[in-house]
Fold this protein.
Amino acid sequence: MTEEQKTVAKSPGSNRWVGQSVARKEEARLLRGQGKFVDDYRLQGTLHVKFVRSAYAHARIASIDVEQARNAPGVAVVLTGAEVAKLVQPFIEIGPDPGGKILDYPMAVDKVHFQGEPVAAVVAESIEAAEDAAELARVDYESLPAVVDAEEALTDGSVLHPSSGTNLVWQGEFEYGDVDGAFSKAAHVIEIDRLHFHRFSSTPLENNVVIAQWDASDNQIYFWCNNSFPAFAIQFLSPALGVGIDQIHFQSHDIGGSFGIKITNYPYMAVCALASRACGGRPVKWVETRTEHMTASAHGNERTFRDTRVALDGDGVITAIESRHIDDCGAYPRYEPLGCIIWAQVLPGAYRVQNMRIHFSQAVTNKCPVGPNRGYSRMQHLWFLERVIDICGHRLGIPADEMRLRNYIKSSEMPYTTPNGCVYDSGDYAAMQRIAKDLIGWDEWQSKIAEARRQGRLIGIGIGTTLDSGTNNFGQSQIINPRAPYSGQSEGANVKLDIYGEIVVSIGSVPQGQGHETTAAQVVADVLNVHPDMVKVRPGFDTDRNVHTGHSGTYASQFAVTGLSAVHGAAAKLKSELSRLASFALGANEDDLEFGVGTQGPEVKDNKSGKSINYWGLANLVNVNNAGLPPDLDVTLNCRYVYRAPFKVPDIQRKYGNLTLTYAAQLHIAVIEIDRETYIPKILGYVAVDDCGRVVNPAIVRGQVFGATAHGIGAALYEDCRYDEAGNLLASTFSDYIPITALNMPRIRYGHLESPSPFSYNGAKGMGEGGAAPVHTVCAALQDALWSSGVIVKDSHNTADSVFRALSTLGLDRGQGLGARD
Amino acid sequence: MALQFGGEFEIQRALEEVYDFLSDPHRFGPVLPYFRGLTVADERNFEVKVSVGISHIRGMADVKLNLAEADRPRRLAYRGRGSLAGGSVDFNARFDLEPNSKGSKVAWKGEAQVFGVLTSIAGGLLQPLAQKNAQKAIDGLRAALESGVGDQEPGVSGQSPVGSGQLSVLGSPSPLATQPELAPPLAASSPDSEGANSQTSASAAETPVQGSE
């Protein structure tokens, strides 16, 4: 049996194309260098922006002098933050007070709150002229104490936003079950003083790019931008810029990755739009540099877990967890108040624990604002749970695999309702563990590891079990802010026959490499019984297609459910119209019609008479040759469908309800050896097993699993947005950030399981974020290697340096990173 | 990124001479490493342009200095702020003077806080670089004092006396050009891997962007 064949419970399907590794339609242009990214747009008269950015993490702007810059050659306009503040309203805040009082403008007005925050925008005929002029801007700062630790921030010793008066953004208590009762009956209580999930980000090949044109003639704003959640961005931009939603036009074509962090690039969109208006409507382009991206785009959340107590019964089954979680959202909350609830989608992780009490708070710090980075908010919480189960297993002497088996939710319990009302749709974590152990050679490794340890080598094996919840219920935002005007989830799609009978699909999502064109074509091909090559899926996103909804975008692992459900619905509507039209044209009963491909392309055939009409003929009848069509034959062959996920608004008081529709799962196993001389952790073996329900395109799923695995391994061992005490980012280039590459990527063995979701029409679950499984897994393997040395893995980022320090200072728990065992 | 440095040296000069040298922008400013120009706002505030960087990658930095503490002849302290491409630096430098058998003992102490992407790009190089430049400044200071610069009356270096308003050295006949005694010690600085401050401050001031680096 090959790795690919290690499939359990593969359900039989009638689909012809869904489930096949159809070659990606996007590759033809992308591999030939013919992709169209925002920077490829060449609009006549385009001006270019260079931002003047703060070197300080926290400072008052004493004065700003841009006169020299304004008078520099080629400069069209210079906008300072104070000038911009007079032109716009601050962006809306998702959260309630106190975070809701924060004033968030597109650029710093009188204070800077993080290193790299823009204080002025220089707009010139060329980027070179803009850069030269930007250097002439003189800004005098009065340095203020920087706060780079969320726990310290909550003491309000130095408050970032005077309008709010506190660094606290939001806090709340999440309590379910009988926590105190469980602790009183516990056979074991294990305490963990501090765990810390570090700050890292994504490194998309394409940085943020914006072109904006504010056309004064009709007061319309046109954006070409790689924002990955434009429906959300537009809702922020409209009130800030003082224009109606319909006056904002947004278009993207190809996007070189987002991973969520491009969702929050709207402040730059606003500045470019204002600059365009100031320059008489000329297009204004901003192309972010890599250092700008590292410094001032968006990072992933950093989270600290304090005072954790775990109750277990005599068999090592966890009966209760209580803990205090502090989330660091950087200088501005923006999307982040949602992170205060999104983790609760996976409250118990893959485990059956019923009694939980989590106090959650979020603070602003003088660091880059965070964005919904891949696996966002759930990833941090799942890492916490994996550290808990791992540490408890080691303490009780229960092997990692057994510890998890004793605590996993069982497949027979699916759909499983969590203590906070989320419904896990399907899954079999024990089966995934069996597949993974088989692939890695678990038993053989146990023998090898025992022998290696006898030789004094530091080697360990670890398991990470994680969930990738997808298709979220925006009603959870009301748990954070009861006045939030969001709930449910939706996505739109349009399938039509154009005048010449070509099948054209428009989607509301914003593809960034996930193969939406291909999988959408597979779905339509199955509905109409044609070849996917006969389905043209328009690349990218465009508000003017009028397909999208207020939830449209690509985020939260949902396209396979929301996007494809919308495509499926629209294709089914078109098929229904085609059936009625063909019935008229052929004089046939609809029951006798068959959809397929004839000698003249896609057609509808009357099986009784043998007559057929192809799509060109059908489209012709409606669009250009429609005299004689019965008035009651109401067909347009242009069918939009909006998929709405079956959600209710959660119980806000109890913080209870179904927050997500599907739960993909990942189970990874790693074997890691720590070099005794260099302390460099080296991965000796790695297995990734994925269950995303019914697989729409195995090749695409495999690619996303590998991508997420690479991202997670990079985060666990290399990538770290670390700051010094003054708020300087010490990893503003790839030389310091060290994104993972093919050179340090281990060989991955891949397996999968299909547990079809009962909640999606196709059994698919959203996927692609991967739940950061490698972060949990690498930590678990390191823990196994270091446990006998007396070290506890307390940080999600571990390097040769931190391992060396931990082993060198054994017995001196510094309270961060790897710490000595209690 | 916080940097700290300090040390002490002895000099065969009276306390007052050392103090007057250190508190006179026209004499103290040019001993800073890679000095390129001076603008004096008043007797307590001045701005120097210096060339900063690593090896051949250099840029101009504007450094504003404020004589924050002036307790003649025992103590003086500067507070400063420099800005350059990719970063800023805030610093404090304090000099404590004591008489001794040779003349004066000068204890100096500096603290700097560096901000900006420079801290990431230059990273671990900053501390040794700062240490080196601080030492270079002290060496220049000693050399200038020993060679007699300190004999000059404070505040007469130039056509406009200090305190009479803006005195810009950049692009104008430099008052420092009238101080030939300043040249030997600085010219004697040996080239090193960062480039050498081999010009006199006067000629450097006249050609601020054409340093030897």
